[in-house]
From TrEMBL:
Superkingdom in the source lineage: Eukaryota
Name by which UniProt lists this protein: Uncharacterized protein
Source organism of the structure: Petrolisthes cinctipes (Flat porcelain crab)
Region of interest: Disordered: 207-229
Biased composition (Polar residues): 215-229
Length: 267
């Protein structure tokens, strides 16, 4: 049976946010991910782990990560109570492509001093683990693929990972929040709204990105996005434009269906 909204809101879900600062504009994703994690904490009621942000980890997790990084990743993947959010960016896509090569090429955008040392170690390793564990890579209850569509077009999406459910943010925040909690959207119910401050933080981070395109004029993708839904999740326009508090859903479906034969218009 589906969780009740009351039970959903009481549970703090552990999530591992996986992203890469690699890529041409990789450094601009740091503030985007930071704002995203704050929304996950306050809006989606999550305890967020990020191996590129040591302060996000409890002391015991931090010690384990520093001592045995690979074993730490393995331990989280073996825990059914920990869910994984993978942020699709050009740099993440690049890391995944390099992982498929026997001898990864040297990439100038991934050699700067700003790239944390755990990124080239753990991101490719996690991609390999998912590649070698199809049951996990296609576990829609544990693995979530997200993309910030205002700054990353569909070419950034990763292959072979929960291919039929992809979340475009910020449009699909409500769907993501309920899915992370193991529930689904129940008409008329919503999570406690995030603060104006955190929404403004996300808006600022997105608009500062060199590839930013306003939500209604994003035409950078050469092909349309692959998501369809008869009643897609949306945010009120003023959430995106003004960063106000009312992050809401309309009377809408809780699932995002992908039909490659009948794609939506570009995001």
């Amino acid at each position: 049976p589906l969780m009740s909204v009351r039970k959903v809101l009481r549970k703090q879900q552990k999530v591992l946010v996986v992203w890469s600062p690699c890529g041409k504009y990789g450094e601009y994703f740091g503030p985007v991910v930071a704002a995203f994690k704050r929304i996950l904490q306050s809006y989606a009621h999550c305890q967020v782990y990020d191996y590129l942000d040591m302060l996000s980890l409890p002391d015991n997790e931090r010690r384990h990560l520093l001592a045995y990084p690979i074993a730490w990743i393995d331990s989280l993947l073996l825990r059914p109570d920990v869910k994984v959010i993978i942020v699709a960016t050009a740099g993440a896509r690049q890391r995944q492509a390099e992982n498929l090569l026997a001898t990864p090429p040297v990439t100038k955008h991934c050699l700067t001093h700003s790239i944390p040392p755990l990124d080239p170690m753990l991101f490719p390793y996690l991609m390999r683990r998912l590649q070698d564990t199809p049951n996990l890579a296609m576990d829609y209850s544990r693995v979530f693929h997200v993309r910030f569509s205002d700054v990353s077009d569909s070419r950034a999406e990763l292959d072979g990972i929960v291919s039929w459910t992809r979340y475009r943010l910020p449009q699909h925040f409500p769907a993501l929040a309920y899915s992370l909690q193991g529930g689904r959207y129940l008409g008329g119910s919503k999570f406690e709204e995030p603060t104006s401050e955190v929404l403004r933080e996300l808006h600022k981070a997105l608009t500062n990105h060199p590839d930013y395109q306003p939500p209604h004029t994003n035409t950078t993708s050469p092909s349309p996005d692959i998501y369809t839904s008869s009643r897609p999740y949306t945010l009120k326009t003023n959430v995106i434009n003004g960063g106000v508090r009312d992050l809401v859903t309309s009377n809408q479906n809780d699932t995002l269906h992908c039909q490659k034969n009948e794609p939506d218009s570009p995001a």
